[in-house]
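Quick one: structure tokens for this chain, please?
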Amino acid sequence: RLPVVEGRLVDGEDDAVLALAELGGPVALKLSGAGLLHKSELGGLALDLHSEDDVRGAHRRLAAIGVDGAAVLAERMSPPGVELLVSARSDGVVPALVVGLGGIWTEAFDDVAIVPLPAGPERVETALRGLRGAGLLTGQRGRPPLDLEAVSRLAAGVGELVLEHHLALVELNPVIVHIAGSLVVDAIARR
């Protein structure tokens, strides 16, 4: 089991407002559908929504984007942390796990490690500690160290999932790493 942010699909503005109340706000609304890889570039993401008016306006904006087959997903906002990319692929020469700084900055930072699969949590943690940006995770410059053990277990589990279920790809971006634990905020999978 992967730790995922709490949320659900919503059916219209009124249901999105209901989801805000159910999830205890603030929430994020995002377009969700097959083939939607870069939601932020498309404008398919609205973050840190606190009020009914915020949610209604964001839902109207997302619905107007008009992506075929896309639904709107409401999710509880994750507490702040460091965003990582965790991706496992079996469609290359060798099945591999890619871990690195993630979120909207994945391509800009270009700070990833590639780990052949299968890989246990210890191997993944070593790879994370070898990133140029590892200080964000380990507590440099007075920041508290984050839960590398939790995110390493999560990443190793994604590698196992890909191998056991013969998936071509599972990409989690971002995974938010906190002082205690980590949380999957967005994911795609392909057979």
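The chain is about 35% helix and 30% strand.
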